[in-house]
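One chain is below:
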Amino acid sequence: MAFIDYVLQPPSYGWKKENGELAIPTHSQILREFFNRLNIFKDIRNWLPLMSWVKVLAMLPFLGLFIFKFFTWPLLAVAFVYSMIIMGTHGTIWHHRYCTHRAYKFKNGFWRFITKNLTISMIPEEIYVISHHVHHAKSDQPGDPYNAKAGFLYCFLADVNHQPIAKDLSESDYNRVTLLMKHTGVEANTYSQYLHWGSYVNPGAALRGWILNWSFWYLTFYLIGGHALACCMFGAAGFWAVGVRTFNYEGHGKGKNVQVKGVDFNTNDNSINQVWPGIVAGEWHNNHHLYPKSARSGFKPYQVDLAWYYIKFLHLIGGVITYKDSKTDFLKRYHLPHLQKYE
């Protein structure tokens, strides 16, 4: 088996049936798997996905305070911008284009640190990065950790059920995980620590980073606008963290091929370009699947790409030293031939 086939921990219901077709679990199977994998009393190695969801649940008091105590329409507008645009764009900049695809390179650790902490921390890099490599290798096929063909809940709870790395990797295979993660700056476990904790990221480092990031941003927002603004922003971050878990289901046509000729040029899977995720987060998903290592995925004039604008800005001021831009190749190989066909 190839490394990509076993680097993730398989769910109890498996990736595929004996005949090779996608195994589509029932909702009860998915929920049972979800709660089993959050149980650190059963297995301490479940700590990372549990921490990810504790972050989400910890936002509920902030959201409640904002709605029932501090609510104003201007603050709602601020929450909308922060959750939909700032958090979404940062996810594309950091988790997607840098941590996973290395579409650009920072000058040094300072710019990497600044970019990593531009927003309230919600998603563990490890859970996103390793599983996303598998997603691209097996997009819409059995083994894709958030395969839209298996339904909404399969995708929504994938960060717990399908995305964590396997807990029994050999030392050489764990070193391959290290190669996929080292550039992110995430503090790693040794192999013996990995066998105990079941993760690449060291739990002490993860907890420390969480506390420092949240403390900094709460204090910053408090100094700007008091508890009202701080609760507004933290509630918005929690809202985004739930919403982002729905993206791949929508971004792959809810499991159906709904691609549009002249808009979606990658036909190897069901990924589609959607206007809203594209504009607010630079997530032109079909373009991204066509050129996964490109620091820009908004190739057409109307395809606003805020993530690309940030990367390009850092390049202009020296924070980013190299990047990959596939726009010229896209226009030459796909867009212009399509236009010529209909002239």
Observations:
- Strands lie at 104-106, 320-323.
